Automatic annotation (TrEMBL), chain A:
It comes from the Bacteria. It holds the Pfam family KaiB. SMART domains: KaiB. InterPro entries: KaiB-like (IPR039022), KaiB_domain (IPR011649), Thioredoxin-like_sf (IPR036249). Coiled coil: none annotated. Residues 1-22 are annotated as: Disordered. One of its GO terms (biological process) is rhythmic process. This is Circadian clock protein KaiB.
From TrEMBL, chain B:
Pfam families: ATPase (PF06745). Residues 17-256, 257-488 form the KaiC domain. Keywords: Hydrolase, Kinase, Phosphoprotein, Repeat, Transferase. It comes from Thiocapsa imhoffii. GO terms for molecular function: ATP binding; hydrolase activity; protein serine/threonine kinase activity. Its EC number is 2.7.11.1. Coiled coil: none annotated. This is non-specific serine/threonine protein kinase. InterPro entries: Circadian_clock_KaiC-rel (IPR051347), KaiC (IPR030665), KaiC-like_dom (IPR014774), KaiC_dom (IPR010624), P-loop_NTPase (IPR027417).
Amino acid sequence: MTVTRFPASDTHATDGNPLPSDSGYGVAALPDGPDLGYVLTLYVASLTPRSSAAIQSVRDVCDKHLKGRYSLEVVDIYEQPSLAKREQILAAPTLIKHLPLPLRRLIGDMADEHRVLLGLDLRTRDASQNPSA
Amino acid sequence: MIESTTDASSAAASGISKCPTGIFGFDEITGGGLPRGRPTLLAGAAGCGKTLLSMEFIVRGARDFGEHGVFMSFEESEQELITNVRSLGFDLATLVTTQRVALDAVRIERSEIEETGDYDLEGLFIRLGSAIDAVGARRVALDGVDALFASLPSEAILRGELRRLFRWLKAREVTAIITGERGGGTLTRHGLEEYVSDCVIFLDHRISNQVATRRLRIIKYRGSRHGTNEYPILIDAQGFGVLPISSAGLDHRVSRDCLSTGIDGLDALLGRRGYYKGSSVLVSGTAGAGKSSLAAAFADSVCHRGGRCLYWSSEESPDQIARNMASIGFDLEQHFTSGRLYCHAVRPTLYGLEDHLARLHRIVGALKPDAVILDPISSFTAVGNLAEVRIMLTRVIDFLKSAGITAFFTGLTQGSEPVHLERTEECVSSLIDTWLLLRMTDVAGTRKRLLHILKSRGMAHSHQVHQLLLDDCGVSVVAAASNPGEPR
């Protein structure tokens, strides 16, 4: 498996992206919502069922709540072990929200949507209301 | 540096291959080092030297044994690690740039983390695996691995993953040290000892008489004999050191050669030869009776004959010793300059007894002296009770004897009655081969120094009381009766 590119906004392609800009995995531009961009990277360890489930869950959540204003990259740390060290990855899968700040690390198979939303700061801990819905 | 002693015969006998650490004293008590290709758990409270021991294992492996290593820290950054060991003379930065050691500092912020379901520690495995491959590591240290429990949710997952990690390390056949914080009821706070079954080492830190001593104990070493005692450890400018409590077997080879006392008259009393090489000598006496002068005479004589001497002073600085001894004709300064005489001047209260002992081991190991002078041993009672001091001195004597080094002690006696004089406070006289007693006496208004030889094993020594004369030409010993009124 290689790094997979998903549609994303164009604003945060360089400053929050963990990959070097010349890595060939640049973030594609999307027409709408440049100021609300979410820059996400999902690190998985090979294509295990758990990895697939995590990729699917993250895409579902993003399409549902962040349609058109996120960029998501999926990185297989087996193929790029140096990234695991640089990005301080221990657990797999790990989803890093680089932007907007603060930085968050979501670990696990992303099965718990409520917690994924919490981790993405799309839902506050005491409010059941989803602010971005 | 001090060479390591690999106990090849015991390793072969026990059937386990050992991985030498090169750490002072450690390979002796483990019969050759850590179990090769297996993980070892190092448990202990904060400040016991866990990080240092594991780092020394990696650095020495890469530097002295040609075995590259990976050091993964869960507590400190790479720069901190490099800086911390620089003071011990380990150039970790160079080992890293020359691809002999790989460092990885794991940093986890609990506040950043949100658990969203099942996870594993594959990221850790990948990092470790790629670091091992990058330098071709044979040794691995995981320092502070239980910090994971504070940073990552779900203890059950962590436990399973750590178990898998230790199995994985074993499968990769690297010799590994895993350190863990000491727990309340268990050895480590998170029970890591359940997963590491081959070798468990415990470090401890205790304070008695307001002096702290660190100790090391091997709790378990599967498939190998090991010492079960607590061993004092010290951490000094040369790194970590473990002090083997000498087995004190009375099987050391004794020498028939002698070292001159530095005083012709005294040599004559001891069968014209001096002290036996490798024997232990005690000079006891009241204050001002000339104990240090005999010590200086001996040191001077050893150095003049091309030998090396360690002067362990608990009361005077090297400068003071040199000045005072110059007044009775001994130029010790030249021996300091030539390096034949090494003076270690330290107040006993600065360290615990075992720390002193460990330092003595270290200095003797580096200096390889022919003679060691402890002046005086009485001052050690400031740091321990008599029984402890006696044990320490016994160890010193055993250690020096087994190394064939002549030991020279001075001891202060209180009171001048014979009952006081023929008894040393430290009660080591039974371990001493040659015991000289000095005392002061008044003859016609003049204080005189008298010298008796209380015993000298294996020598036809004099039984008469002699007079010790100190003047600016040196020290001499004359028969007490023949010089009724002579100098000073």
